[in-house]
Model the fold of this input.
Amino acid sequence: MTTVTGTAEEAGQQAGSLAAIDICEAAGLTVRKGGIRPRVGDLIWSFADVEGLPVSLRPSERKLDFSKVRNPRWRVVAQEFSFARLAPGHEAVRELPQAFRYPVAVKTGHGRLTKLTEWFNWLTGHGVTSLADVTQQHCQAYYLHRSDVRDRKGRVLRPASQEARMHAVQVMQEPAFYNELFTADRFTEGFVPWSGRAPFEVAGCKARGENVAQPLRQEALQPWLAAALYIVETLGPHVLELVRCVRQEEETPTWTSNERWQARLSAAISAHIADDEPLQLLEPTEVASRLHEGWSEEDPLLQVSLNAVARKAGKLTFAHRWLPTMRPLLEQAVAAVGVRPRWGRDAPAVTRADGSSEVPWTEGVAGAMALNFLVDRVRTACMVVVALLTGMRASELMEMPVDACVPPQDLKAGRMRYRLRTKLIKGQELGGVWDEWVTVRQAYDAVQLAVDLQDPQSPSPYAFGRFTFIGRCNTLRTWVNSPEGQRLGLIPIPDEPINLRITRRTLAMELAHRPGGLLAAKIHLKHVTVVTTEGYAARPGGAQAEFLADVAAEEQTRNQNLTLAAFRDSQKGIMPTGPGARDLIDFFASVDQELQAMEAAAPGVKPGDQEVINLLSKRAKTLYLGIANYCWFIDPAKALCLTLAGTPGADKPLAGMCDSARCPQATHHLSHRPVWADSAENKKIFIGNIRRGQQTEKARLQADLDRDLRVLAEIDAATAQGA
Done:
């Protein structure tokens, strides 16, 4: 291993005029009065007192530690490079021809330094002591080293991701752009690793197309949302009531030293027996601690909370020296009244999540630690509900204040508008901007419950604050899949990845693939029902509008895929039915002719799906999903829903007024058959239950049933024809 000589002080003296520069002033960062103001020459830059840093920023990411760079001269290089990225407008930086012109965030600066430290220390470990000695061969060797993920012993575990390889190239290239700025050491003049090639080119990255975050499968989405909503709506109020009762408990004053402890404890234990009151159950972690200390698993007092007995006698803790004397009476009490949890012994019954029966909402809460776990479980469920029903990013959830719930707005006719306020961080200046999300009542109530469950002894200005979503979800899933979760009738949650990118992507898919383009997050109560988020239809601005841009992109992809599927069915002879079928069939025939012409022009080359989609794209843009039909909204004047509503000039159909059996722009496909079949079956049941005196109602239902049966017959005929 190479030994690097010199001290940090010597290197700092070489930093010249940059060493004394106030970084926050140069970067335009506001520091609290009396706060720490790091300077370029400091080995550790602390930004803990900078105002407006996002809540999601961990304490470790609020400081840049240059002492980990083993070569003292390269510490100075790292300091100057980091300063240049944070303050590109400084006079010493802005004159550099290849310098980046946009400032990076503190978190990004921390990440850049971490990777730069790894690169510099790798060079040191391979005998390089000066940047002037760095060659393309060194860079290529380090790139190969970073192309694999390794354990602490250097053993290869798996290939690194494209992004990791790109970052490896980036950390080698970027410092070379600032070569003229460096005072302690420099690269050879003109040297730039992989000169002329961008990092993503070297790493073989492709331009991003489809969102890489895949949505939750329905088999995972439904259990997640079902469990989270059940915990928030059914268990949440009981947990909150228990927490409030516990907070109101007052500790019993301690007795004075001259009082007889044996008499006080004996009276307290005897009172348990006389009142038929069970002794308090010890928390599992404390039971494990006793076993580790040598207690026998057969000891009748193993699970008894001795401190609870002491509290009843007027003492906060139970002294170990008292146990031999009090053991006979304690064992007598255990045999007489048993051991039960401290709280929730007689918990009210709630309906199980599967609706099969009623059970106590809890079997008891042993102590403060168990209560904290319970509160954390409920708060995690609140996060899951808000994430799945709003599509917020992690930063937006963490920035949400305790007064995030804006008073509901009464829209009359039994409709309420619920809004949540938080800060938008991504893409904004330091400190973010306030924004509001229009959402459903379930998400609104979840935020309010999370705020109410905060510990008043440790108040926070944020509803959730900084959290680790993946770890919390793993803990919640373990509990849902445990015997306690199954006792409450919760559906086991599959062991699949979940994070806030996935929840955002899932909601975007749910919005895009549901009739009308509105939210249809599946909520498992007794059956799957649909909750429509009125706010998304209103198209508000800000972060929600940005989220809806993702939804619109997904809607376009959905429309193209559905149109392609309908076209492929027509090629197989499975034609659409309904009033608009003839027009769609003619369009498909024209596309088929164009494809044949393409094949004739290039014999042996068969057009793929993308070529077909290009031909179908114009018609796909007119597609809207109905509950039981496709709406090809080509001509508003022909839309029956707009005619009935008296708004023929509208630019979108009114799904709530759709009568696809009569609208000339509606078509029915095989995928719609189950909806029509269910509708017909329900009408048959209703007609069978109608009394003789309700002939008018029977006639109306019979007409609707005849329509349903006619549509079903047409779909079946088209399917049989294709078969």
